[in-house]
Amino acid sequence: xxxxxxxxxxxxSLRRFVASSLRPEAYRLTVSADDAExxxxxxxxxxxxxxxxxxxxxxxxxxxxxxxxxxVTVPYVTVHDAPRLx
Length: 86
What we know:
The chain has about 90 residues and is an alpha+beta fold. It has one domain: Chitobiase, domain 2 (2-Layer Sandwich). Helix content is about 15%, strand content about 30%. The chain has one helix at about 45-55, and strands at about 10, 15-20, 25-30, 35-40, 75, 75-80. It has a four-stranded mixed beta sheet with strand order 2-4-3-6, covered by helices on one side. It has a two-stranded antiparallel ribbon with strand order 1-5. The longest helix has 14 residues, at about 45-55. The mean pLDDT is about 85.
């Protein structure tokens, strides 16, 4: 797959869902060779999942004008996170 190397890839799509099975503000971020998926307990959970995905991308994700024209690659990961306190 273009844009892939060992253990990282440029996902072709980002899917976002809200699932009542997760607590409010909780999320699960999964990045695979095919896509990235964020499942949040509510819209805030989806927001925090997007922030985590942004943080594991290159520094270009934080710039208004990207330095490189190469596809952004992210490692294959599964992240589960939830606030400790309500």
